[in-house]
Amino acid sequence: MKSFEYCTAEMRWLFASLLLALLSVVHARSFNSSRLLVVTEEITEKDKYSTFWGDLESRGFSLSFASPKSPDLSLFKHGALAYDHLLLLPSKSKGLGPNLTPNMLVNYINANGNILLALSADQPTPPAISSLLLELDIFLPPDRNALVVDHFNFDKASAAEKHDVLLLTSPKPLRNGVRNYFEVDGSIAVPRAVGQVLGNASPLLAPILRAPSTAYSYNPKDEAEAVEELFATGSQLSLISAFQARNSARFTVLGSAEMLENKWFDAKVKSQSGVEGATANRAFAEKLSAWTFQELGVLKVGRVEHYLNEDLPKGTANSSEVGFLDLNPKIYRIKNDVHFSIEISEYVFTHLVPFTLPPTDELQLEFSMLSPFHRIPLVPTSRTANSTVFTATLTLPDQHGIFNFIVNYKRPFMTNIYEKRTVTVRHFAHDEWPRSFAISAAWPWIGGIGVVVAGWVAFVAVWLWSAPAEDGLRKRN
Amino acid sequence: MRLPYTLAVAALSFSSACLAASWSFDDATLTVSSKGSGGDGGVKEKLSPNSPSSKAITLPAVDTLKIVLTATEGSTGKRPHQAFLTLHEPTTGLEESFPFSLKENGNGKVEVTQKDLPYQLLTSKSPLKASLVLASFGSSTPYASHAFDLTLQLDTTAPPTAPTAPERYTSKPVINHIFKVQETSGPRVISFFFTIAVLAMLPVLFGAWALLGANVDHLGKAFGSAPIAHGLFLGSVLAMEGVFFMYYTSWNLFQMLPVAGVVGTVAYISGSRALTEVQERRMAGER
């Protein structure tokens, strides 16, 4: 009897601790939004990148490693993403396996997953990858073996003969008005890269790192002697390309997987002119992975407010509600003065900071019905601890209807902002028109009315109390 | 022991200096010719590796630009892996490269027509900078130098079709659309003038009445016989004008109508009494 009771008490304690452990596991999983899956064919290969994994883990990512052939690999679980980010290392086989078909990768992006795809010139690119990139308007060389070389900007220390390790300076801003998130101090070594050409039509594509003007891509197997048919040369070759989908999910194509390896993170390189130095690959890999995995270039919108910017009506001027503002009313009147403000923060690695516009760029407010009738700049007016408030004032157009306040801010490398607030703009009410005594052209008419009124009253008085005219007109027979 | 050692080092460095050859080219000629003439007409220029050509080359619409050269590594003719003619547009920084087709001994040519050039280079406002790039694997110093300036003569009858401008995410132009222009009144001076003119008509009217013999002589008599009626009637006429004035400035219909009703009733009753008094005077022959 006694022993039986002892057993059940122990078992109860065991169950309780098990339940607690289970609960804590469930708790940790649900708040963890930095799950990164690395897909690599040879699990032993991952040791070559151990510094890079260490950097990622120190930034809060939880890494899992899988092979594309493993049967239980799945990007989705119960309809939601199983991993928030995906890093694909080059694989030798023809494709990425049945669980990572191009269709599934496209679905993954549509579900807000971020992908960093690394290619290498040492391994032929699988046709599945080529067709996936073609969907995004990124063109790979038609030969599956392709290598970017530059006889003018190569690393003399490691590639003095083959010239296949490019030594590039830090990338410049893409164009005026775009912020450069990839600037590093020092030169970047890009060993054995696959060059890409970006289609011109898509606004979603942007090159992160372009090849210098003397670089070109060739097939080492077939074109070892001379290159006759060029795929692309110079700055038309993009070594690292970025694609940001309309839902702000990011897909980066990294032409050289080898530049993430430990040995290139602090390699000693020698440029063509003999200048020696260390590579900035580690800092660049940090910036690249931070951008792709939504730690850099992420914008968040706080409060969006609009209100009537005109004088308060006479009655409420002295009331206790002097500070009262009707925020975000649903209806305005034509030609009202309206004040609009939007609060934007930028997420940088771990916390939100006030958002500053890139120089020469403008944040614009559109007031539009079917197409914008006003497009005016929003200026930063105040700052809180972690956001900037941009405001604009405008006079509503002289047209009634249903209008929208739209802030449509889409730029390369920044998440897309699209905020729309719908308001009704009504016409003047019958008692809101300007009074006639305020219209200077009406004064003669008002004077005329006054003259008529005075004449009428005088006529009534004269008619009631006049005596007949004495002589002249009355003397008639 | 030192001397032979240093001599050996010197010999080795000398030979390695010989080995570190540099790419260059020889016998380079540039011709611009049209298909039929076979090279007789058109431009013919010699290019030198050390200095760019001072003559500006023009490429008309149907002609072909041809460069023939022999690439050399050191002093021997050899085929480099990369032999390009690069055309560079100075304002936008865009460039396009055309590969030479070379034989083993480094001899070869490249031909460029306007059809091969992309739209952005064709429509360049300033001359394109053409450079020759000769480089290959190994330790030889590569060659890249500005060779000549190229101006394009476009065919004015068939201008190049502009490709549709690609959509790019950038800030868009400012719009301030005006639906209806704000109505304005005419100059205030003119309004003043006409208001004064209208108001001046009142004294003119009274003057005209006075000339015709208007008077209020029976005022005393009327007020003597029926003071309340006449007083109320005149008061109600004035009050009615007052009601209309209040309605014009501040009252709404529902405030004005009751007052108008009261004033109207007073006017009706007092008025009928006042008119009775006027009838009495008329009967007495005083009107």
The CA-CA distance between the termini of chain A, in Å, is 150 Å
What's the end-to-end separation of chain B, in Å? 160 Å
Name the chain pair with the biggest interface and residue counts per chain.
A-B, 70 and 76 residues
Mean pLDDT of chain A: 87
Number of extended strands of chain B = 12
Low-pLDDT segments of chain A: 24-32, 314-322
Helix- and strand-based class of chain A? alpha+beta
Per DSSP, what share of the residues of chain B sits in E-state strands of 2 or more residues? 25-35%
| Major sheet description of chain B | 6 strands, antiparallel
Report on this structure.
The complex is a heterodimer of chains A (477) and B (287). Chain A has 477 residues and is α+β, with helices and mostly antiparallel strands. Chain A has seven helices and 26 strands. Chain A has helices at residues 2-31, 50-58, 102-110, 127-135, 262-265, 281-292, 443-465, and strands at 35-39, 62-66, 76-77, 80-81, 85-88, 114-118, 138-139, 147-149, 165-168, 188-191, 197-198, 205-210, 216-218, 238-244, 250-254, 268-270, 276-278, 298-308, 331-333, 337-348, 351-354, 363-368, 372-383, 388-395, 401-409, 417-426. In chain A, strands 18, 19, 20, 21, 22, 23, 24, 25 and 26 form a nine-stranded mixed beta sheet that branches. The termini of chain A are far apart. Helices cover 37% and strands 25% of the residues of chain B. In chain B, α4 (219-225) crosses α5 and α5 packs antiparallel against α6 (253-283). Chain B is rod-shaped and about 145 Å long. The model of chain B has no long low-confidence stretch (mean pLDDT 86). Classes of the chains: A alpha+beta (477), B alpha+beta (287).
